[in-house]
Amino acid sequence: MYTFLIVVYVLVSASLIGLVLIQHGKGADAGAAFGSGASGTVFGARGSANFLSRTTAWLAAVFFALSLVLAYFMHGRAAPHSVVDAVPAKPAATVELPVPAPVAPTAPTAPTAKTDVVPAAAAAQQAAPVTDAKPAAPAAAPAATGAAKPATPKVPQ
């Protein structure tokens, strides 16, 4: 039955394509109105347009109906299935991780004095180098406006 429907489907498709290709466009009717010999055809002046358009409409309806029937035959009867169902299920491998032994809580103790810890003030004194040189006095910057700058008194050192 399915093969027969496929053969009919292909024949209807080929006929539909052929009918659409042999039909005249809308611009061809203007030439027939001025006596281009269309009245001497088998179907008459307007007969071929009506016959071809009606046949095309019927073939299109058959084409769509066959499409729905073939879709039903392919997928409508079978129960839905999944690709995941086809894969055999394996039990998950369990890995046991070692659990550390619980540690009993201990009572808090007072912090012990460490000998390598130095207070911040003592560390600053140890880090600064000891020199006998006097610090240099800051140099006076020249004035940008040209105004006289008051002289800074020198402090005896």
What is the H-and-E element order?
Answer: HHHHH
DSSP strand content: under 5%
Continuous helix count: 5
Shape: elongated
Report the helical percentage: 40-55%
Identify the notable features of this structure and list them briefly.
157 residues, mainly alpha, 5 helices
Q: How would you sum up this structure in a few lines?
A:
This protein is mostly helical. The protein has helices spanning 2-22, 28-33, 47-76, 83-86, 120-127. The chain contains 5 helices and no strands.
Topology of this protein?
Elements: H1 2-22, H2 28-33, H3 47-76, H4 83-86, H5 120-127
Helix pairs in contact: 1-3
Description:
The protein is mainly alpha-helical. The chain has a domain at 1-20 and 43-78. The chain has 5 helices and no strands. The chain has helices at 2-22, 28-33, 47-76, 83-86, 120-127. Helix 1 (2-22) runs antiparallel to helix 3. The termini are far apart. The model has no long low-confidence stretch (mean pLDDT 73).
